[in-house]
Every structure is written in structure tokens, then in C-alpha cells.
Design a protein that fits this description.
single chain; about 230 residues; alpha+beta; 7-stranded antiparallel β-sheet; 6-stranded antiparallel barrel; 4 helices; about 15% helix; about 35% strand
Length: about 230
């Protein structure tokens, strides 16, 4: 488990590819590897990876299987690429963000960036059907960082967008300041929200399933849509 509080930015120091597997070496900030052991977990841009080798100078090796390469941006890493990193939480650790599993749910894209004074606002586009789990003032994990959703907008097809506001300290400790419009991002939704939404949807479908098409048609005639939580 991770807390969503990024502990630093690591840099890709070496890469090698084999059929179905990519191996890379990360250069971590000073002191990051103190006490780190082979087999330990490190969130790399929000993806839980296992340490397979340790080197002097705060370096460690990781292997990434083909499925993870297909579902994340790790397959696009190059020498010098920078990523957010966090070590696995220990028992009794303070949860400054919210509990994360390190399992990416989907890829999103930076749609727009605004920079009001002393703030950095990123609008992130979300593919269908994932917006059903994202609500204003709720938690979301973006590239391994626990963030609060400031605003959210939904489309009828189940897609949408949300915005996060980043303070200077967050920009200093992460790679978000390097992301431009069109940049891909890893998203992990908040699990309690997912369970709640899926439970409600299943209960509604069980009780109203046969009636939902008629209800949708009736609402459409009145220029309204079924709430996303139920649809």
C-alpha cells in the first residue's frame, strides 16, 4: 500500500528490453534507498514495481511485464525520463493522502493548464466510463500523487474531465510542472468510491433493470439524462 504522498522524483539511468519485458534502473534522490531491500515495492508514477536489484549510489533495478507496458507510460520511458516515486507505506505510517494500491485503472490526458498566481491548475480528460467514480472534492491519484478533485464535468457518453489545483510545493516534489497539454497520465480511482458507486449501480439494476430503458426515454423527452451514478 502507498499513501499518495510523492517522496521524490527519480530519473531513468539505464534501460534494456527483452521479449515481453522491460528492465530499467532508476536513480533516486539521496537517501531514498536507505533500508530498501530486494523484493520491496516502489510506486513509480503510481505503478507498483518490485525491486529486483540494488546498486550503490541510490540506484535500483525494476522489471516491467508486457501487460503493464501496454496499460501505462512505462513503455515510453527513455534515458533521463523523470517519474514520481514513493516507497511502500509501513505499518503505523501517517496517511497524508489516501490509501493507494499502485494499480493503474486507466490512462487520462492533460486537456488544459491554467496558472493563476501561486497555483497550477490541470484539467484532465477522462475516457468513458471512468467519470462515474470521480466527484468534486473527492480523492484521485494522478501519477502516484494523492490529489483532491476541485471541479468535475460529465458527458452523456460516460466520459468527462476533472481539475486539480497544485501548490508550489507539490510542483517542486513531483513532475507535474513538466507536463504539457496532451501528456498522458496514470489514474487510480479511490477504492471506497468505486465500491460505493458499483454497489448502488448493482442494486438499482437489480430492482429497476427492466424499467431503466423506459426511464431513460422518458427523461430524454424532457431534455434530461439519467444520473451517471445510476446509468
Amino acid at each position: 500500500m502507498f499513501t499518495g504522498i510523492v517522496q521524490g522524483v527519480a530519473q531513468v539511468a539505464a534501460l534494456s528490453d527483452r521479449p515481453g519485458l522491460r528492465s530499467f534502473t532508476l536513480q533516486f534522490p539521496p537517501g531514498f534507498c536507505q533500508g530498501l531491500e530486494i523484493g520491496a515495492s516502489v510506486a513509480s508514477d503510481g505503478v507498483c514495481l518490485t525491486v529486483v536489484a540494488l546498486h550503490e549510489g541510490d540506484r535500483a533495478d525494476f522489471d516491467v511485464m508486457q501487460q503493464s507496458l501496454n496499460l501505462t507510460t512505462l513503455g515510453a520511458l527513455q534515458l533521463g525520463s523523470r517519474i514520481n516515486v514513493e516507497r511502500a507505506a509501513k505499518d503505523g505510517a501517517e496517511i497524508g493522502g489516501h490509501p493507494l494500491s499502485g494499480h493503474v485503472d486507466f490512462m487520462a490526458t492533460v486537456q488544459a493548464i491554467r496558472q493563476p498566481e501561486n497555483n497550477h491548475v490541470i484539467r484532465i480528460g477522462v475516457p468513458a466510463p471512468w467519470m462515474r467514480y470521480i466527484f468534486a472534492k473527492g480523492y484521485i491519484a494522478v501519477n502516484g500523487a494523492s490529489l483532491t478533485v476541485a471541479e468535475a464535468g460529465r458527458e452523456r457518453d460516460g466520459s468527462g474531465w476533472f481539475e486539480v489545483w497544485l501548490i508550489p510545493e507539490t510542483l517542486r516534489m513531483t513532475t507535474f510542472g513538466e507536463k504539457g497539454v496532451g501528456a498522458p497520465l496514470h489514474i487510480e480511482i479511490e477504492r471506497q468510491t468505486q465500491v460505493l458507486v458499483d454497489t448502488v449501480r448493482a442494486a438499482v439494476d437489480e430492482r429497476l433493470g427492466p424499467l431503466l430503458p423506459h426511464l431513460e426515454q422518458w427523461l430524454a423527452e424532457k431534455g434530461q439524462v439519467l444520473p451517471e451514478l445510476l446509468g
